[in-house]
Every structure is written in structure tokens, then in C-alpha cells.
Write a structure and sequence with these properties.
It is a single chain. The strands form 2 sheets. A 7-stranded mixed sheet has the order 8-10-7-11-9-12-13, with helices on both faces. The chain has a 6-stranded mixed sheet with strand order 1-2-3-6-4-5, covered by helices on one side. With about 350 residues, the chain is of the alpha+beta class. It is built from 11 helices and 13 strands. The two termini are about 35 Å apart.
Length: about 350
């Protein structure tokens, strides 16, 4: 039997790097069907398949570990928003759960109850899946597949130069909320109680399909859910998906002061922190889009524009630099820290 693990080139925990994705995943996806309008690719979070009639089937899959029950809510919302970014509406969720041998049935019930609650909030059905126990995992591992339909799907490849980049929602909401809950007692020694309590509830500020629909109604050409890797990761993937560049202003990105304060406490970059519940949109008229979003009570701003160059330029006052390939999400530092503490 071939050994599954050999050599010394281990990959880092978290979302794999773009180079690994290209050479070890995307280059291996050689099968094809003419019904598939959009398949795998950089920044392409959904598959879009032509179905009978006038509709397209839109699918999104994600896998994650459940160290904290809040992750289930985030992942469902993330999946629903990914379908919205393709012009689709989520209908059903299938979920596979792999439980550790030492996992208790109460934990499985909690996972399923959490998933079903969020599905009801989002108006979708938890419609089946698979569950098993494995000695190969230490915490529950969940794989979710969301399915929906779109009358007029929006493909990632449609993005082009000379479009304005609009951000709807705040970056790093999910990461800030997770950190505030996990390190609540530490943070209360450093910050006012109100700041910590507010940050703990940041996931309540996540925007969803209403924001996406406003974007489409305002003529959005393409849209990207901001999640792992934060706004920096989203900007990179958005442009890299179609070989274009961008020119953005860091100071125009709307960000909560609570996020800045808490990230500074731990030396984290808030622009590379888990950012569920916010969108990046490429639109012909940014001010019109922002006005419509704000009228609906959704924080938004024009943060830059796409260009015909490959460079991804980021301004911060008088400073100018080029955006790097997405780094590891800052939330992984919390996972590493917890793992080290448990091993000591």
C-alpha cells in the first residue's frame, strides 16, 4: 500500500496557497461537460450547471472543523452568500459529518440543531447528507454542499477593466466576533466592557442576499464573497480570476474601530482576517450602488477600481504598494495558539 504521508514538504494549516491550488488541484481537473458553464478556478466559489428549462443549477461546497459551534452559522451564511455572488438563490443544504470516536451523541445533536436553525433563518432546507464515526479525526469535520438556482447566472470571468470596486458590509466581522468570544476575559482586562460585548455580536452585522440583489439591480458585473483571507484575499482573487489589475485605497475600506483595537492587541492584520457577511462588487457606477446600499441600511463604500494592468495597487495616504498573494488567514493564529496550549 502506498504511504499517504511521506517526504518533508508539509502544507500549512488553513486554506492552501494559490500556487498549491494551481499545480496540485486545478491542473488535475481535466474532465469536462458542455453543460458546466463555470467550473473550478481562482476566485470561483461556485459551479454553475445548465439545467432543463430557463434555470441554471448553482452549487457550492466547503469543509471545516467544528471547534466552536459558531462556525456552523458562519459556514452556512458563507455558502448562501457564495450562491448570491453567482446570481443564485440557495434552496437546499446537504451536510456530511465525520465525528471523532470520543464524540458524544449530544455533540452531534448540537451540530445538527445549529445547522437546521441557520437553514431556517436563510429560508433553505437541510435536506440530507451522511454521518459516520472515524478514528482519523480529533474534532468533528463537516462538509456542506449548498444547491440553488439562477435564472441569469453571473460568471466570475465577466469582470473587466474600468469598473468601480464597491465593498458592502464591514471586513473581519466573523473573525472579530470569534476572537472576542474566545478571548473575552483577556480583552475585558484591556478594553471597556461595551467594546468587547459589541464585538462578540459582530456576526449579527453580516449582510446577505439583500445586499447582493441591490448590487445586481445597480448593474454589478461580478461579485465576490469576502471570507477566508479577508478583504485583501478577496481583492486578489477577484482580479486574478480574470487576469486584470486594480487600484484601491486602504483608507476607504469601512472597518469597525472594535476590529482595529482587538487586532492590534494580538498583532493581527484586520484586512487579512475572516470576513464572512460582506461583499466585493465590480460595478459601472459605484456612487449609485453605494447610495442604494446605504438607503437599505447597509454600510458600503467605493474603495477602488479595476485596471487593464496585472498589478494590484494599494494606496494608504502617500504610501503605495502592490498587493501580495493571499497570506494565511489571521484566524489560524487562534487555532495554533489553542493547539499549543493544549499540548503544553
Amino acid at each position: 500500500m502506498m504511504a499517504l504521508f511521506h517526504g518533508s514538504k508539509y502544507m500549512k494549516t488553513g486554506k492552501i496557497s494559490e500556487n498549491v491550488l494551481k499545480r496540485s488541484v486545478l491542473k488535475r481537473c481535466k474532465s469536462g461537460r458542455e453543460e458546466v458553464a463555470q467550473g473550478s478556478g481562482i476566485g470561483q466559489d461556485c459551479a454553475i450547471v445548465r439545467s432543463e428549462g430557463q434555470k441554471f443549477c448553482v452549487l457550492h461546497t466547503q469543509a471545516f472543523t467544528v471547534e466552536r459551534m459558531e462556525k456552523i452559522k458562519y459556514q452556512v451564511y458563507c455558502g448562501v452568500n457564495n450562491l448570491c455572488c453567482s446570481g443564485g438563490e440557495a434552496v437546499a443544504l446537504m451536510m456530511a459529518v465525520m465525528m471523532p470516536e470520543q464524540g458524544e451523541e449530544d455533540l452531534l445533536r448540537s451540530i445538527m440543531d445549529s445547522a437546521d436553525t441557520v437553514c431556517r433563518e436563510c429560508g433553505i432546507q437541510l435536506s440530507g447528507g451522511h454521518t459516520e464515526i472515524s478514528g482519523a479525526v480529533q474534532v468533528p469535520v463537516v462538509t456542506m454542499t449548498l444547491m440553488g438556482y439562477a435564472k441569469e447566472p453571473h460568471l466570475t470571468k465577466d469582470i473587466r477593466q474600468d469598473l468601480e470596486l464597491v465593498m458592502a458590509g464591514y471586513p473581519a466581522l466573523t473573525g472579530t466576533a470569534l476572537l472576542a468570544r474566545e478571548k473575552e476575559e483577556e480583552l475585558k482586562l484591556r478594553f471597556p466592557l461595551e467594546l468587547v460585548e459589541t464585538a462578540k455580536e459582530f456576526d449579527q452585522l453580516m449582510v446577505g442576499k439583500e445586499a447582493a440583489q441591490i448590487g445586481w439591480d445597480c448593474g454589478a458585473v461580478a461579485m465576490h464573497d469576502i471570507s477566508q483571507g479577508g478583504i485583501f484575499g478577496a481583492l486578489w482573487e477577484f482580479c486574478e480570476s480574470n487576469g486584470i489589475g486594480m487600484d484601491a485605497d486602504l483608507r476607504k475600506i469601512p472597518i469597525r474601530q472594535e476590529t482595529i483595537e482587538i487586532c492590534e492587541q494580538y498583532g493581527w492584520n484586520p484586512y487579512q482576517l475572516l470576513s464572512g457577511g460582506s461583499f466585493l462588487m465590480a460595478v459601472p457606477d459605484g456612487q449609485k450602488t453605494v447610495a442604494q446600499l446605504k438607503q437599505a441600511g447597509i454600510c458600503s463604500a467605493v474603495i477602488g477600481r479595476t485596471t487593464d494592468k496585472r498589478e494590484k495597487v494599494l494606496h494608504n495616504g502617500e504610501e503605495m504598494r502592490y498587493l501580495d498573494k493571499p497570506a494565511q488567514d489571521e484566524i489560524e493564529k487562534l487555532v495554533y495558539r489553542d493547539a499549543r496550549q493544549e499540548s503544553e
